[in-house]
């Protein structure tokens, strides 16, 4: 009898999900431009969000590496990380991906990025985050439940 895989069983790697949604928004923007704001304002707001995303992602990645666990949810998680941005969010790397995506959307200045973000966030929540939570609770039990009770899911 096969044993269950030691991973979260997510539907896809999160960067691939974001990376698939954004080109669709770009094509839709090319076909039917729908600007959000004045281009200069949108660009600067977008760049600020991109910087924020990088400012969350780098320490998040370092915290995972310091704990010796995998960043990729298709590989086994070996530790519950509670340092760095994981003190404030159980999913800071996904928050960073969302800020990056929204920053790019603003930099391109298209409502289509926001239109695509809505189903993307639903897919991320149901197909990635909830899968990971079940996996972590099953694997780490009370340790994960205590962490979950103290730290927000997103921000």
Describe the protein.
- By secondary structure, the protein is mainly alpha-helical.
- It has one domain (14-150).
- Helices cover 66% and strands 0% of the residues.
- It contains five helices and no strands.
- The mean pLDDT is 96.
Order of helix and strand elements from N to C terminus:
HHHHH
Q: Name the average pLDDT.
A: 96
How would you characterize the largest beta sheet? none
Uncertain runs are none
Strand proportion: under 5%
Task: Furnish the topology, listing elements before pairings.
Elements lengths: L13 H18 L7 H29 L24 H17 L2 H30 L1 H9 L5
Helix pairs in contact: 1-3, 1-4, 2-3, 3-4, 4-5
Give a quick summary of the entry.
With 155 residues, the chain is mostly helical.
Key features?
about 0% strand; about 160 residues
């Amino acid at each position: 009898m096969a044993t269950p895989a030691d991973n979260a069983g997510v539907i896809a790697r999160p960067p691939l999900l974001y990376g698939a949604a954004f080109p669709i928004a770009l094509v839709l923007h090319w076909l039917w431009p729908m600007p959000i704001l004045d281009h200069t304002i949108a660009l600067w707001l977008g760049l600020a969000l991109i910087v924020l995303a990088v400012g969350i992602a780098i320490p998040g990645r370092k915290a995972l590496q310091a704990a010796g666990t995998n960043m990729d949810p298709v590989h086994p998680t070996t530790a519950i990380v509670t340092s760095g941005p994981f003190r404030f969010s159980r999913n800071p790397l996904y928050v960073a991906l969302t800020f990056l995506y929204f920053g790019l959307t603003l930099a391109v200045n298209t409502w289509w990025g926001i239109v695509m973000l809505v189903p993307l966030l639903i897919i991320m929540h149901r197909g990635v985050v909830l899968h990971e939570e079940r996996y972590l609770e099953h694997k780490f039990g009370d340790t994960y439940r205590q962490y979950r009770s103290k730290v927000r899911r997103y921000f």
